[in-house]
Structure formats: C-alpha cells, structure tokens
Write a structure and sequence with these properties.
Blueprint lengths: L12 H6 L15 E7 L5 E7 L1 H5 L3 E5 L11 E2 L6 E2 L5 E2 L5 E7 L2 H10 L1 E6 L6 H6 L8 E5 L2 H7 L2 E9 L11 E7 L3 E6 L4 H12 L6 E5 L14 H14 L3 E4 L2 H7 L6 E9 L5 E13 L5 H10 L9 E10 L13 H19 L3 H8 L20 H11 L2 H14 L3 E14 L8 E8 L5 E5 L8 H13 L6 E3 L2 E2 L14 H28 L13 E4 L2 E4 L2 E7 H10 L5 E7 L4 E3 L4 E3 L3 E14 L5 E11 L6 H20 L30 E6 L25 H10 L16 H13 L5 H10 L4
Parallel strand pairs: 1-14, 12-13, 16-17, 20-21, 30-31
Antiparallel strand pairs: 1-7, 2-6, 2-8, 3-7, 4-5, 9-17, 10-15, 11-12, 11-14, 13-22, 15-16, 18-29, 19-20, 19-26, 23-24, 24-25, 27-28, 29-30
Helix pairs in contact: 6-7, 9-10, 10-11, 14-15, 19-20
The structure holds ligand MTE, 3,5,7,3',4'-pentahydroxyflavone and dioxothiomolybdenum(VI) ion.
C-alpha cells in the first residue's frame, strides 16, 4: 500500500478537467462585495502634474476613489521583497507605463469601467529608458555589482590558443499563467482582514498588506486555496492587487475583489529578465574550455523586486554542467522604465545556462569538432574537475553518465550522419541536431528562506489533515505531500487531505519557489508526523505489551503499515489505524503536531562570491533535432529526447508532467515567445494572438522523456529531487539545433542568432549567413552586427 513512488492522480485532476476546481474568480460573490480596479500612468517616464478624479466620483455605483494622498498615514508608502523601493500608488515621478495612480472601488463592473475612463491623469512625459543598452548609456542600475571569480582569467585568456569574443542577448518571457493575478479581501470584526489570494507567497501578501495599511501582521490572514499557474509570476507581483483589495475592504468595511484581465496582467506585471552578456571564452584545439570572462546585465525594470536574487542565480549557473578552470563572472541589473521584472521558472538560471551552451556550440563549429564531444570533454567530473566557480563541490552526480546514456539512446552518431547527408542534398530545408545539459542548484540562495513548517491533525477515524506553507499551482505539491504523510502513518493516500494554504496555520513561510516546495514542506510535514508517531508508539507499546508472552513495553518495535498499527515482534498484536487513533484520544494522547525543517549546510557569501549555496543539484540532458525552412524561417522540432536525474520520484506521473511541461515552456522562451515594446514602453504583444506560447502542435513530433537512476544520491526527502524548474533549461536544445543547422549554410560564420529564435529571426540569420561570402557581403555583416534585437 505504500503510495510514495506511485503515479497516483494529481489531487485536483478531476477538478481541473471538469472545471469544478474553484479559482479566485469562481468563488461566490459576497453580498455588498466591491469590484476594485485602478487607473494607471498614461506614460512610462516623467512627472504627473494633474490627477482629476471628480468626474469618476460622480458616476453612480462608485464607492471609493483613492490616490496616494489617501494612503493610511500609519502605513508604509513603499514595499518590495528585498528592497522597499516600490510605491503602491504614484503621485509624482512615473516609473513605467500603467503604474497604478488611482484605485477605484465600485458596486459593479460597468461602474468601474466608466469610472476608470473618467479619471484624468496628465503630466510631462520624458523619453523612457527601455533597453539594457540604453540603461547602460544612462548609467542606470539597480543594486550593487556582483562578482564570482576563480583563478586568473586574464592570464588564462592570454595563454589560450583561441578566444571567442561576443555578445549574446536573450529575451524576457511572460509567465502566461492561465489565472490572472487576483485577491479577494474580506473585512472581519475588530479591524481584522482576511485575504484569499492567488499567490505563491501568502506570507509576502500578508506582510505587504499589513505594512501598507499600518496593521500588525496578526490582524491579516492570507489564504491560497490553489493557483491557476504561477511560474514565478506570483511570488511578489500579487502584492499590488492584494494591497488594493485589502485597503478598500478595510476602508469600506465590505468585501473587495481585484481580478486582473489577461491583457492588463501582461502589460503591467513583471516577467523573466531579458539579459545581455558580454563574453570572452578561451579554448584549445581539442575544444577544451580554458577560461571564461562574462558580464551579465539584466533588464530589471523600474524597481528591484527579486532582480538581485535572479541575477545571483544567473551568475551561479554560468558554468552550468561544465568545469571552467579560470572564470570571472560579473552581474549588473539595468534600471529601465518597464514594470519590475521578477521570478520565472529557472529564476535567472536559463540566462546563464544558454550562454555557456551557445559558446560550446560555437567552439565546436570553430574547431570543426562534434558538439557532443566538446560538451562531453568539458563536463564536470567525479573526483577531479568537480569544483564550481563559487567553490562548491559537485557531489554524487551522474552528468557524464547522462551524456553517454543519451548519446546511445537517441542514436546521436547515426542521426548526425543523417542530418549531414540531408543538408548536403536539400536546397529548401536545413536540419540540425544538438545536445544540451542542465545542472540546476536546489535551494534558495538567500539562506533564511530555506525553511518550512507544517501542521498535521490526526482524527479519531484515522483520517488526517495536513497543512503546510507550500502553495499548489498545478505542480502537484499537495499530491506529493499527501503521499509522504500517508506513508508516514502507513495509511491510504485517500485518508490524507491537504488543506488550503493559510498564514494562520503556517506562518513566516517562504514562497513556494526555487523548486523546493516538496523538499521544504515535505520534510516539515514528516517532522510533524514523526512527533505524533512517537507519542502513538509510546501508547501502542503499552497496549501491545504482554508479560505472559514476554513482550516488554517497546515503542521502537511499533510499526505503522497497511492501515494497521502492530508490534514488530508479535504481528498479531495489532489494531486498525482508525481504532487505534480513537483509543489514543480516549487515553489523552496528543494527535496533532507542528513540524519544522531547515535545509542543512547551505551557505553562500554574496560579497565574496563563495560558498555552498545549494543542498544538491538536479541535472539532465536533452537532444533535439529540428528542421528549418530556409525561405520562411519556419522551425519545427522533429524530435526531442529528455533524460533527467530527478532522484527517486515521489510521484512519477506528476514528475514526468513537470519534465514535459518544463521542457516545452523552455522551447517557447527560445523559439516563439517574443515580447515587443513600442518606443513609449507599451507592450505590443499583450495577448495570445500576438504573443506565441507553445500549443499542442508545437510538441516535438517524436518526444521521449525519461528519468535516469542516480544511486549516489542519498539526501533529501525519500531521496527525491526537486523537479519544478530544471527541465525548462533543456528547452534550449532546439535553439542550439537551429544554430547547428545554420552552420551548414556557412561553416565560417557563427550564426547571428539570439533569443528568441522566432521564424523571422531564423530567416534573417540564415539569409545573413548565406549572403556573407557573396557580393553584398557588407550588408550581411551589417545585418549580423545589427541583428541584436534588444
Ligand atoms: N508547474 C505548474 N503546473 N504550474 C506552475 O505554476 N511553477 C514552476 C514549477 N512547476 C509551476 C509548475 C515553478 S517556477 C516552480 S519554482 C515550481 O513549480 C514550484 O513548485 P515546487 O517547488 O513544489 O516544485
Ligand atoms: C531562488 C529563488 C528565490 C530566491 C533565491 C533563489 C526566490 C525568492 C528569493 C528571495 C530573496 C530574498 C528575499 C525574498 C525572496 O530568493 O524565489 O523575500 O528577501 O523569492 O536562489 O527562487
Ligand atoms: Mo519559481 S521561478 O522559483 O516560482
């Protein structure tokens, strides 16, 4: 009956498929509930000179019209997860287009629409700074410059037989969760406030709302029953709607709900950081990477949000799966007039990883070696070449084994010959094949966040409730927690219910993020179970002891298995779990506990750029084969093979779902999703019609996703590994396969292809490479130089 290791269905599978699982907007309306929205700044930079709300106030059904001047005097005016630099409402200097200026609460949607259009906001716009290059030119940065260094990179670059020098740009990405940002705030007696919110971070929502309203934390409770996806976008960005709903609810003493529309959500919430890298890579004739000097600059947007932590993770993943003897990594964050960028699956890791993977692909092209061989040559070793640039030893990994296994399993060599033969013949299409890796560090690099707590209630019928600070966004956290707790008591998973997440049951929690949801909350839940079981075992030992049979009182011999509690020495001394629980309560045994967990050993010093930021690594490899239409730029992923070490899976169905979904989301970032902005800072792609997320037809025609055993991995809950974010970074494989395909057009030119490799970008790059050695070569070179679409 053990359920860990079984692919039991996701606890909300039926609800998701039938539409009965309620999201924020589905919750029944309260009598007298208010609809809340806001009017935003009409320009991205400059000063507001006039805010006229008179006409809006006259509209029937309008209940509150609030500006910065109305903010509670006891409350904080600014908020932010790391630096408190973001105002709730702006009254003067505007930082991004659509930044909230006036909050309006009304009796109904129609009144809200009319009132919002009646608000007059005027000012003196200035030219916004939107790109990384523009911010650098204006010397606009957020947070300090950081470094991670090992060895003497300058000397190593001088010694290196070859040096590759260049810039690489990767675009941002919209989280595109299906449920937009939303909070319902309900006033309770005595000035208390209950928030029901679609958030990965209930504690942050509680804290921001309390601080902005000048309330002590204990007067605010934040609940999150479930999210329709978060993908990092709900770690901090739920704070604004939560604060608006909370403010209105407290002031009007009526329930108030904020639900962003999709377009508004895309326009004003933060995304993955676009990042530009300036690099020099030294290598030898055998494709050995000798030295790397890189400066990353990300587009942080207008406020700090999580940008410093995101950049830290970019820097910590600049090595990815490869040992680089001498390395110097610098990270800066550009301050621009875009909404503050934030967490997105991978949290900066993808931007670091795509750079070194591209460099290795280019080294292969330059040395005319096979790109697999180049990667395999540089991969981290077991006993030597196993120390990261920040000094952490890469332990108990299977990186070389993963490479070798996938090479065989996906028929890499014969297919490479086929691709070469195809490209030698075909005049309309190009094929490419590339393999990439991911080594993703598991733990928050901010040490204090590596903790979790849980509450377990055992009832007298043997059923169990568990509450943790972890939130469910579709990733299957609740299902895995349910399995862990069921196994702890030896009962069926159906006897365990995971309760709605709430700060009144689990407080001071970390966001459900960094893929560590199951690690932190699963451990905490098990810690609670252990305490209850210890008390139960003491009671059971008394019940089972039998002097006549020489059975002494021995709690250590009590077992919880298959729905019964028994004595290991005399298995006939047993009680069904339910009866046992009832008896225990009658004997006044405490059948509830709070558990706590703190990840051991993690520590990173960001000043020195050294330490052990990660508890362990989740790793994998992927191979992708693509076909490009030379005359339209159309890119099709013909085949993808994913192979990952995710430890011993708690739920193989849930975990494989993460591998499939994460990979495809990465392919979207690399090949189809393009955020376009107008000169005024307006998002020109604020809907699925203009912003192309992958759909079913974008699934690779052949798609093999498998896990790979790692017998060396002996840490973490039930020896599992975090799976949420790592597979996204394997979605880089089709991008590198596209570069590989292009190398056949002109082997002497490195493909001028960056992210996203949209059909348009692919067509431009192929054309530029083709023109390179032909009469109008200058134009092509200009095209190559200018190809950097910022
Ligand atoms: N899977 C689904 N279905 N929906 C999501 O929003 N978020 C991802 C990943 N997988 C996400 C998802 C991100 S960004 C993270 S950090 C992890 O899930 C968080 O959950 P975990 O720590 O429980 O894996
Ligand atoms: C990975 C992450 C996060 C991170 C660090 C990682 C993350 C996150 C924070 C963070 C850092 C400082 C704070 C805070 C949050 O750091 O998601 O509130 O004060 O929120 O390596 O995913
Ligand atoms: Mo995930 S980006 O850490 O929410």
């Amino acid at each position: 009956m053990p359920s860990v290791g079984k692919a039991i269905p996701h606890e909300s599978a039926v609800g998701h498929v039938t539409g009965t699982a309620p999201y924020l907007d589905d919750l029944p309306r309260y009598a007298g509930e208010l609809v809340v929205g806001f009017a935003g700044a009409p320009f991205a930079a400059g000063r507001i000179t006039k805010i006229d709300t008179e006409a809006a106030r006259q509209i029937p059904g309008v209940v509150c019209v609030l500006t910065a001047a109305d903010q509670p005097s006891a409350g904080a005016t600014h908020f932010g997860p790391i630096f408190h630099d973001e105002p709730l409402l702006v009254s003067d200097a505007v930082s991004y287009l659509g930044q909230p200026v006036v909050v309006i609460a009304t009796e109904n949607e129609d009144a809200l629409r009319l009132a919002l259009s009646a608000v007059v906001i005027e000012g003196e716009p200035t030219k916004p700074v939107l790109t990384i290059d523009d911010a650098i030119a204006h010397d606009r940065y957020l947070g300090p410059v950081r470094h991670i260094r090992r060895g003497d990179t300058e000397a190593a670059l001088k010694r290196a037989p070859h040096v590759l020098e260049g810039t690489f740009f990767c675009n941002g990405q919209e989280q595109f969760y299906l449920e937009s940002q939303a909070t319902l705030a309900v006033p309770e007696d005595d000035g208390n406030l209950r928030l029901i919110s679609s958030t990965q971070n209930p504690t942050e929502s509680q804290a921001v709302v309390a601080e902005v309203l000048g309330l002590p934390y204990h007067k605010v409770v934040c609940e999150c029953p479930r999210m329709g996806g978060g993908f990092g976008g709900k770690e901090t960005q739920g704070a604004i709607p939560a604060a608006m709903a909370g403010w209105v609810a407290l002031l009007a003493q009526r329930p108030a709900r904020v639900i962003y529309g999709k377009t508004l959500d895309m326009q004003i919430t933060g995304k993955r950081h676009a990042t530009k890298a300036w690099y020099r890579a030294g290598y030898d004739d055998d494709g050995g990477l000798l030295a790397l000097d890189v400066t990353f600059v990300s587009n942080g947007g207008a406020f700090a949000d999580l940008s410093t932590s995101v950049m830290e993770r970019t820097m910590l993943h600049a090595d990815n799966a490869y040992f680089v003897p001498d390395i110097s990594i610098t990270g800066k964050i550009a301050r621009t007039n875009l909404p503050p960028n934030t967490a997105f699956r991978g949290f900066g890791g993808p931007q670091g990883i795509v750079l070194i993977e591209t460099i290795l692909q280019d080294i292969a092209q330059q040395t005319k070696l096979d790109a697999f061989d180049v990667r395999r040559r540089n991969v981290y070793g077991h006993d030597t070449r196993n120390v990261t640039p920040y000094g952490q030893i890469v332990r108990d990994h299977v990186l070389p084994e993963l490479f070798d296994a996938l090479e065989t399993r996906c028929d890499y060599r014969p297919r490479m010959r086929q691709v070469e033969a195809f490209n030698a013949e075909n005049r309309t299409h190009l094929k490419g094949l590339a393999m990439t890796a991911v080594k993703f560090g598991i733990s928050f690099t901010t040490r204090f966040l590596n903790q979790g707590n849980a509450l377990v209630n055992v009832y007298t019928d043997g059923s169990v409730q568990v509450s943790t600070g972890g939130t469910e966004m579709g990733q299957g956290l609740n299902t895995k927690i349910k399995q862990l707790v069921a196994d702890a008591f030896g009962i069926d998973a159906a006897s365990v219910r995971v309760m709605s997440t709430s700060t009144e049951k689990n407080h001071n929690t970390s966001p459900t993020a960094a893929s560590a949801g199951t690690d932190l909350n699963g451990h905490a839940a098990l810690h609670a179970c252990e305490q209850i079981k210890e008390r139960m075992a003491g009671f059971a030992a008394e019940q089972f002891a039998d002097e006549s049979r020489g059975l002494t009182k021995s709690p250590d011999d009590v077992r919880f298995e298959n729905g019964v509690v028994y004595d290991r020495r005399a298995p006939d001394r047993r009680l069904p779990f339910a009866n046992f629980c009832d008896a225990a309560r009658r004997a006044r045994v405490d059948l509830g506990a709070r558990g706590f967990y703190a990840t051991p050993g993690v520590d990173f010093n960001r000043e020195t750029g050294r330490g052990n930021p990660f508890f362990y690594y989740t790793a994998g490899v992927a191979a992708a084969e693509i076909t490009i239409d030379r005359f339209t730029g159309d890119l099709v992923v013909d085949r993808a093979d994913v192979l990952m070490d995710v430890g011993q899976m708690i739920n193989p169905g849930v975990d494989l779902g993460q591998l499939y979904g994460g990979f495809i989301q990465g392919v979207g970032w690399c090949t189809t999703e393009e955020l376009k902005y107008g000169d005024d800072g307006s998002l020109l792609s604020p809907s699925p019609t203009t912003y192309k997320v992958p759909n079913a037809t974008d699934t690779p025609r052949v798609f093999h996703v498998n896990t790979f055993p790692n017998p060396r991995h002996k840490v973490n809950v039930r020896w599992s590994k975090a799976v949420g974010e790592p597979p996204l970074m394997l979605g880089i494989a089709p991008f590198l396969a596209a570069r590989h395909a292009m190398s056949f057009v002109n082997p002497d030119v490195l493909p001028p292809l960056q992210l996203p490799a949209t059909n348009e970008a692919v067509l431009m790059a192929v054309t530029a490479m083709w023109q390179r050695d032909r009469p109008n070569a200058e134009t092509a070179e200009e095209q190559r130089r200018g190809a950097a679409v910022q």
